[in-house]
Request: fold
Amino acid sequence: MRARQRARLADQRGATAVEFAFLVPILLTLLLGIVEFGHAFQVQGTLSAAAREGARAMALRNDPAQARTAVREAAASLDPAITDAHIAIAPASCPVAVSDTDVRLTITYPMPFLTDFFGDGLELTGTGVMRCNG
Reply:
């Protein structure tokens, strides 16, 4: 009788190991997805804040170079860094006499994934809009 119970326990341990082996890839995929989503969410927040700072600098100073510098400083934590090619400003300058014109600064950022499990990466966009001349 006792040998029979031991055999059943050994069979159950083997079944548990097989079930665990089936679940590990699913759980790891889920974990990697959560990590990648969290990273993309953080980068998107950084891009939105940087675009807002750049639009503010452009609206107040009317200098695209200073607006691009403000964007790069606000998003200094991003790797790879934001370049001038990622930043679009429209219109190129704020009209001096008209104060009801809005300036729009858009950052298009190719965010690489932390792992290559889900592909190469995503293209994220951050936009800031502000009225010219404050």
Remarks:
- The longest helix spans residues 2-61.
- DSSP finds two helices and three strands in the chain.
- The longest strand covers residues 102-112.
